[in-house]
Amino acid sequence: MKRTVPMLITAAVGFTLIGAYFVPYTQNWGESVAIWFDVLAAIAFILGGGNLLRTHLKRISDQGRGWGYSAIVLVAFVATLFVGLGKIGVAPSPQFPDHAWSGQYRQTGSAFWFMYQYAFSPLTSTIFALLAFYIASAAFRAFRAKNLEAKLLLGTAFIILLGRTFAGVALTDWIDPANWDGFRYFTGLRLENLTVYIMAVFNTAGNRAIMIGIALGIVATSLKILIGVDRSYLGKD
Amino acid sequence: MSWLDPTRIWFLGLLIVLCGAVLAYIFAARRGLRMKVRRIAGLEAVDDAVGRATEMGRSCLYIPGLQDMNDIQTIASLTILSRVAKTAAEYDAKIEVPTTRSLVMTAARETVQAAYLAAGRPEAFSPDQVYYVTDEQFGYVAYVQGLMVRERPAACFYMGSFFAESLLLAEMGNSVGAIQIAGTAQPAQLPFFVAACDYTLIGEEFFAASAYLSGEPDQLGSLKGQDIGKLIVVAGIVTGVTAATLANLTGSPAIRAFVDFLINKILT
Amino acid sequence: MGEFILDQWWLALIFIGTLVPLVRQFASAGIMPALRTLDRRWIFLLMFWSVLLPIYFIGVTGKTFPEVPSALAEATFAEIDRLNPGDPVLLSFDYDPASEGELQPMATAFVRHCAEKKLKMYFMSLWPVGPQMLQNTVDKVITADFPSLVYGQDYVNLGYKSGYEAVIKVITTNIRELYTTDARGTAIQDIPMMRDITSVQQMKLIINVSAGYAGVKEWVLYAATPYPSLRLVAGTTGVQAPLVYPYVPRQLRGLLGAIKGAAEYEKLVMDAYGGPAPDPKYLEGLRRMGPQLVAHLLIIVLILVANVLYFADKREARQ
Asked: Considering only CB atoms, which chain B residues are within 8 Å of A137?
């Protein structure tokens, strides 16, 4: 029973929405359901927030390893919530000047804007910027010409790496019909043109093949879930 | 207005053929047809990875991706989590599942609890094993990286929908010496996982994982049905490419009309 | 370059000083053994310098590498340039601060181009943090350099709506079903430039700056494909660009991929509208190509060194 009801709901809603896609009267049902999901996800924020508070409060009370970080998380969480909900530093909207909370919580100059601009934005950019370092270390560790495919991959990588910068232009700008008329048949060998060709033909073909496989995998997985063949995501009875 | 959208009839037909192939092989498998599935190294390594974590006395880390429950990759990830958690329970290894979405946390918790029950170790399960971190992508990555540095998990599983954080996670896992198995249907992230992880499930291998790990005939039958779908797609590509090439070479109006019909009616 | 090194001798000293321990390690242990056991933090340090030094050089000298726009950048430029003053254009900024490095230069260039062409700009975002990126761009370009443009008449910020592709599906048929106010809380019917707009299909062009999901793929799937009359151009991150190449040129009329695409498009916009001394904020893409070049060269060197090591070890093992 614990799994049967969710399975029936999944099957009924899933097949209904699939059918609705093909019937003109019901084609917007999918959008409505997507919005219902957003409402559910928004309510689930409370669940997540509650779990966050519980986990970190427990770590602080147990004085477990790294409890200081948990304290920082809680302070940041509560401060952002307070500042955002309370619209601290937000001027009233010009249309409703008598209502203190009529302004936008993200208003430039407000406390929330300040936290976004000077804490959130630099921090996310910093973590993303770590990618540059990790790509370099991954390149040094992993890109070895062990077999023919790896050699082809590395050759292509060099062409793309050079072709995406001025180095590519500088290395092959001598392939110019102005230097020799015969070069007009070889302008495709200029690194920047080779890069575009590799991306537009070989890379696109590979991506299309992977995407077709993924699409078929999604169809099969979705069908298995809708007809109840695959029930492992529901847990066991 | 008609009951069926005429612009989507061909799409409906293709869908029926593809789903029909999957269903046909599921029923064939139930009737006893044996299915041969090629070896997928990443899935064979799951047991070894969990065993390694047990021997080293360190934990397993499972990342179910960064999307919510409405993404099929997250659901596929949870089906794999069920198997990994069952193995971890059997081996008495600790498994930790930090999530970025509250609904995923709830579903993953149920999945892991059921897996521990199926393994006969319900008392070993703790709800704190599956917890919510943050919805924010890089906040989550920063947390997981810190977790990896502090806890030094011996096995890391990255299964689901990932974006820019894939290389960050994989490189950090590599630096702490973890064995890493990744699976995603995000083509843009596959190169990063392939470069940095020990095993990578590419695209449809990720969706096949649940069937492969369970070994149930029903599920293996669906993989065969997928392959039929691929054959249909290949036939379509060969037909279309041949027709378009011939239309350009010969200029034949009939072939051109066929190509236009393929592009504007069937493939729209 | 020599003059720069002499002027910034202190930077050169710091650079050399940080690498002295590595050189000593090579000298004491031997090059090959040292490379075999190379701590990844040395690689991080080399990457740090390969990004910082070009940024500093370009910042001090103002010199950038020349850019030759590709066909895709030219197609993107042409799509916007062919429009007439007063044509409505939807700009969807679907990125966050993490992707600001790659996407902000193209977002700035898009808004500059649209402002120069006197197009009516309708801004929106599918990402929760997109409105901040949007507002920063509007403040940087429109408020700073086009003060004659009036909010509500020449540009409007519709803000963020949750739902990702569901938002696109709704606004392509009825924008007012979802957007009843703009980001400032003003009722849609009170905004002059929204009076005649009922759906996105009335837009002459959709410009999408996208960092992932939801982004250009969703705009292609749910706007450009079902409604072929909708014209769409996009700027994406380098990782996402290969995935949307298949959509060029039918569904996607133009595509800017990563900072290279941004630099090419910036060059086109500045050549057409920049004047003799453009503001540096419109040259960020061109400036960021410097670190890209040096970093790419570093990665090539690292790959070559790693493979030399690999083949040397293989030979030793055979012997």
From this structure: 171
Q: Which CATH superfamily is domain C71-282 in?
A: MTH777-like (3.40.50.10160)
Residue B149's CB is within 10 A of a number of other CB atoms, namely: 11
> Cα–Cα distance between C165 and C152 in angstroms, integer?
26
Distance CA A218, CA A39 (A): 25
Counting one residue from chain A and one from chain B, the pairs whose CB atoms sit within 8 A come to 195
Among the partner-chain residues C40, C98, C243, the one whose CB lies closest to the CB of B164 is: C98
Instruction: Give the start-to-end residue ranges of the domains of chain C.
Output: 2-64+285-318, 71-282
Check CB contact under 8 Å for C239 and B187: no
Residue A118 and residue B130 in contact, taking contact as beta carbons nearer than 8 Å: no
Structural domains of chain B, ranges and CATH numbers in brackets:
41-214 (3.40.50)
Q: Which residues of B touch C (CB under 8 A)?
A: 67, 137-138, 163-164, 175, 187-189
**Gap from C154 CA to chain B (nearest CA, Å):** 34
Q: C115: buried, middle or exposed (CB in 10 Å: 19+, 13-18, 0-12)?
A: buried
Burial (Cβ within 10 Å: 0-12, 13-18, ≥19) of residue A171? middle
pTM of the model: 0.88
Say yes or no for a CB contact (<8 Å) between C243 and B163: no
Closest partner CB to B3 (pick from A23, A127, A211): A23
d(CA C49, CA C18) in angstroms, rounded, equals 10
Best of A38, A40, A126, A165 to substitute, by most chain C Cβ atoms within 10 angstroms, is A165
pLDDT digits (tens, 9 = 90+) for B184-234: 999 989 999 999 999 999 988 999 888 888 888 888 888 888 899 999 999
Question: Do B187 and A214 meet the contact criterion of CB atoms below 8 Å apart?
Answer: yes
Asked if A31 lies within 8 A of C169 by C-beta distance, the reply is yes
Chains contacting C (3+ CB pairs below 8 angstroms)? A, B
CA angle B47, B48, B51 (to 5 degrees): 85
Q: Taking every pair of C-alpha atoms in chain A, what is the biggest distance, in angstroms?
A: 80
Q: Taking CB atoms and an 8 Å cutoff, what residues of chain C touch B164?
A: 98-99, 212, 237, 239
Q: What is the pLDDT of residues C156-183, one digit of tens each?
A: 999 998 888 889 988 998 999 889 999 8
Closest partner residue to C98 (CB to CB) among B67, B138, B175 is B138
Residue C125 phi/psi, 5° resolution?
A: -150, 145
| Strand B179-184 to B199-202 pairing | parallel
Could you tell me which residues are beta bridge partners of residue A227? Answer: none
